[in-house]
Amino acid sequence: MHQISFVFGADFVFILYFCIMTNEKKQITFIINPISGTQKKDEIPPLIEELLDKSQFDVDLRITEYAGHAAELARQCAADGVDIVVAVGGDGTVNEVARSLVHTQTALGIIPCGSGNGLARHLCIPIDIRKALTLINECRIEAFDYGVINGLPFFCTCGMGFDAFISLKFAEAGKRGPITYIENVLKEGLRYRPETYEIIDDTGTMNYKAFLIACANASQYGNNAYIAPGATMKDGKMDVIIMEPFDALEAPQIAADLFMKTLGNNSKIKTFRTDRIHIRRQQPGAIHYDGDPIMTGTDIDVSIEPLGIRIVTNPDAPEDTSQPNQMLNAFSDFFNNINNVREDIRGDIEKSGRKIQAINKVLLRKLRS
Q1: Side-chain-facing half-sphere of 64: CA atoms under 13 Å
Q2: Helix residue spans in 189-248 (DSSP H)
Q3: Core-most of 25, 63, 158, 315, by most CB within 10 Å?
Q4: Sequential pLDDT tens for the chain (369 residues)
Q5: Residue 274 near residue 353, CB atoms below 8 Å
Q6: d(C-alpha 209, C-alpha 162), whole Å
Q7: What is the rounded CA–CA span in Å between residue 274 and residue 342?
Q8: β-strand partners of 28
């Protein structure tokens, strides 16, 4: 028999523990996306064979063959009563697998092999593959919230405006990784034109001209870029982040705040929490869910499904205690240094905009070297 422990909190949240000392093996399926992220997956099957506790698990490996295949495989696993389905890939693969497991007894496991790894980082699942596999042997499973935007499940963030626009550019890029993402942000950021949005929630109707609107179930986009540093996946709420228009000299500080978990202190950021929201914009365009872009109409509905997905978690770490890595910390410092001279050059916005673009080109060369 599996042992079950109940932990009662403000939202009557319960945490399920599978007992390691059991005679009944759990069925676990690894769904491996061979082309996601920035690294090859050839080493994954031998590591599973080496590190997974065979006394606990009966293991099955499946390789995806086309877009959407991971979702199909995960859906079948849930129908077959598989205990755990592990997504091996990036945020897109995790989303495909996870959305097929919502409101089932099948738990999601994650071996992060992508370019962002937002959900894994939020849940403190190691980016190191060996450590992530070893963590599965602990077999701690908890229930978490997830979100839905226009019928599409998301587990970290969704949004519209500039981040959806960049998601389109990123999807079109010939290569992946944080450098490609940063390159697109630097190239397009100063040319993007904000839109006007009507936002309706249970408090009323608000109108904003915004650079972007993000709805966050978890704290970050990935790569330790914290769009909602205080977000939790267990409160039945999403953090709504409205980034107001800004000029070329304000961009460096916003970027620095994004990586240093201080975005909420920025005067250009407005935030609130809600369980559902309706957004109306002036024309159709892109939205994204967990970084995957899609074109949609003028009306957008976003809501939270409380405790609707079960996930294998890290028993030794609370949600989201990860720190920015050295490269991104240096990137933030670079932006802060630029911001220190902003008052000296504010008198000529057009000239300073060209100066920021020139600095961006230098930064891109450094990042590629």
Answers
A1: 27
A2: none
A3: 158
A4: 444 333 444 443 444 444 444 458 999 999 999 987 666 788 999 999 999 999 999 999 999 999 999 999 999 999 999 999 999 999 999 999 999 999 999 999 999 998 789 999 999 999 999 999 999 999 999 999 999 999 999 999 999 998 887 666 655 555 555 555 555 555 655 667 899 999 999 999 999 999 899 999 999 988 888 999 999 999 999 999 999 988 777 877 887 888 888 888 889 999 999 999 999 999 999 999 998 889 999 999 999 999 999 999 998 876 544 444 444 444 444 444 444 444 444 444 455 555 555 555 555 555 455
A5: no
A6: 12
A7: 36
A8: 59, 84
- To which residue do tokens 């697109």 refer? 184
Residue 88 near residue 34 (C-beta atoms within 8 A): no
Q: Contact at 8 Å (CB) between 356 and 249?
A: yes
Q: What is the pTM of this model?
A: 0.78
CA distance 102 to 108: 9
